[in-house]
Design a protein that fits this description.
It contains 17 helices and 13 strands. With about 575 residues, it is an alpha/beta fold.
Length: about 575
């Protein structure tokens, strides 16, 4: 079990403790890779994971619990959902006074669960500066509201909480037009009440579709296309991001995200990038070029946007969701949690191994990510998330750059110069496709000047004519970037994209072996430069993750030659933190 005392020694100062915590992470990933979490099928191993998560949350926060004991609210949400109320040191735990009417919150949750796909309601998961960062699935369609429970019961052997697709009916069916829209008023009304109770104002929708369509039917909907404009009082951002299937391309390119561009010309991709004007400013990003970004730049820019939103002067919270809320959603929730932690802004007392354990266990495993299924299909979005940390070490991604040194609870003394130098040296010697140099932040082009009023298509400089969403007069000015002409050269298919310079400079030979100059475990000299606090913390998390992943899941290259280099790199990470040397993971 992880130590719960704030006086516990840090992982880089007590090697034995570091190894034990790394083994806990390896054990977690091993279980995760074989089992999908179900709230009503909990084993003692899962109970221990739940307990550790509560202990880690308690280090820095006072919280209440939203109960989901047997999955009665949502079958693949945690049994004990943590509602963070405010930051408070562990020593003040006995003086806890709740600031929320937890009975009212529980009632809102119970009433609103049917509003969203698979019952995955709006759930607060991160508390930053008094604001709740929440996650959920997208809005449920008409057919799901009526047919999900019955269909799943019949076709899944009596279980009503499986992931089997419901038999859906188009939302614009005649039955809906004849009066059943009142059902949407009711269930979405409860959803809106929950959002308001959590003080959420901003909703970021990661779907590349306006509505998810299967077999010609609208399976799910979205706030941005709600015909009755029930969500008009919220600030809606359409930030289309590739789904988990795209990450098979990432795996097939030997886990190289540089140069990997999503094909935006597919028929089902119809959601434009739509961002309020005030959020397009001050980020130095040319959003009109989003369809030409590779996976690295797109993820970087979206993370910058989310951090910019939560740093608003108001007290409003943020909701992030995709379709079902179990792939793209945990990706950005996890990156947000780790980025804010690296700044000392959240979970201030946790060390690298502890924040890694918390985000894997809580943000991914206990919220139902289907890692076994994704691994079987080669859709390595889970691995991408933590390997991507090398791309956000720059201060450009710091949410609290100006006041970070003043307010950070993280003490520099917790890492020695030798520790930091060794981290830097280890990472520099590894294969670029997995562990590039630290200066991988893509140079950004100057942001285009944005209109101050109505929705505009920047490609034609004409008012946006598409009927995907009718912008109410109360909405903030928005900028919309739509689907481009399929003949434009910069939208060529990913296979035609050249790898970036960082990828082409890979320290990997044509025969899939490390070059002789590579020395991931070299002892650094005392004169090398010390990385920033943010960089050191994120690199530490990434290194621990790679070691644990190596000892459990491992990476599988699509071609024989790079495979040896990849496995060799992970083997070096494993040896570096002491995971090799025993066949068993405790």
């Amino acid at each position: 079990m992880m130590a719960a005392s704030p006086s516990a020694a840090r992982g880089f100062t007590v090697p034995g403790l570091s190894v034990r915590k790394s083994q806990h992470i390896a054990d977690l990933i091993d279980l995760f890779s074989k089992t999908q979490y179900r709230a009503k099928e909990v084993t003692p191993r899962v109970e221990m994971i739940e307990k550790r998560c509560l202990e880690l949350f308690a280090r820095d926060y006072k919280y209440s619990i939203i109960y989901n004991s047997n999955g009665e609210v949502c079958g693949h949400y945690p049994r004990q959902i943590v509602f963070l109320e405010y930051e408070s040191p562990e020593v003040d735990r006995d003086r806890f006074e709740s600031t929320v009417q937890i009975t009212k919150l529980q009632d809102l949750v119970n009433r609103s669960k049917m509003a969203r796909c698979r019952g995955r309601f709006v759930c607060p998961v991160i508390l930053y500066n008094g604001k709740h960062i929440c996650r959920s699935a997208t809005l449920a369609g008409w057919g799901e509201l009526y047919g999900r429970t019955g269909y799943n019961y019949i076709f899944s052997g009596g279980s009503d909480d499986t992931w089997t697709e419901p038999e859906e009916v188009p939302e614009d069916d005649s039955a809906v037009r004849n009066g059943d829209s009142q059902l949407f008023d009711k269930v979405r009304g409860h959803d809106i009440k929950l959002l308001r109770y959590l003080s959420v104002r901003y909703i970021c929708d990661l779907m590349v579709e306006n509505k998810k369509v299967k077999f010609g039917l609208n399976v799910t909907s979205s706030e941005k296309v709600d015909k009755a404009q029930r969500y008009a009082d919220f600030t809606l951002l359409s930030v289309p991001y590739p789904g988990c299937e795209f990450f098979k391309d990432y795996k097939d390119r030997d886990y190289t995200a540089e140069g990997l561009v999503f094909n935006w010309n597919q028929d089902h991709v119809d959601a434009p990038l739509t961002i309020p004007v005030r959020f397009t400013q001050n980020l130095n990003i040319d959003w009109s070029q989003y369809q030409s970004w590779d996976l690295v730049e797109q993820t970087q820019n979206y993370l910058k946007l989310l951090l910019h939103i939560i740093n608003n002067d108001d007290d409003s919270g943020l909701l992030v969701h995709c379709i079902s809320g179990w792939d793209r959603t945990p990706l950005f929730v996890s990156l947000l949690r780790l980025s804010l932690w690296a700044d000392g802004a959240v979970h201030a007392s946790l060390e690298p191994a502890e924040i890694l354990y918390l985000t894997i266990a809580y943000d991914w495993f206990l919220f139902g990510h289907m890692l076994p299924d994704r691994l079987s299909k080669g859709e390595e979005i889970f691995f991408f998330c933590f390997n991507f940390l090398k791309h956000i070490v720059s201060e450009k991604f710091s949410a609290v750059r100006k006041q970070r040194r003043k307010n950070s609870h993280f003490k520099d003394s917790e890492f020695t110069v030798e520790d930091l130098c060794q981290l830097r040296s280890r990472d520099r010697g590894s294969i670029t496709s997995l562990s590039s140099d630290f200066s991988l932040i893509t140079e950004e082009v100057a942001g285009a000047s944005c209109p101050g009023a109505d929705t505009v298509d920047l490609f034609s400089n004409q008012p946006q004519a598409s009927n995907w969403r009718k912008v109410p007069t109360s909405s903030p000015p928005m900028v919309v970037w739509c689907k481009q002409n399929p003949l434009e050269e910069h939208l060529s298919h990913p296979v035609n994209e050249a790898k970036s310079s960082s990828s082409s400079s890979s320290n990997q030979s044509d025969h899939g072996v490390l070059r002789s100059g590579s020395s991931p475990l070299a002892v650094p000299s005392r004169g090398c430069s010390v990385p920033s606090q943010r960089q050191a913390r994120l690199e530490a998390v990434r290194e621990i993750f790679l070691a644990a992943y190596s000892s459990t899941v491992g990476l599988r290259s699509s071609a024989p030659s790079p495979s040896g280099a990849i496995s060799g790199l992970l083997e070096q990470f494993a040896r570096g933190v002491g995971l090799r040397g025993s066949n068993a993971i405790v």
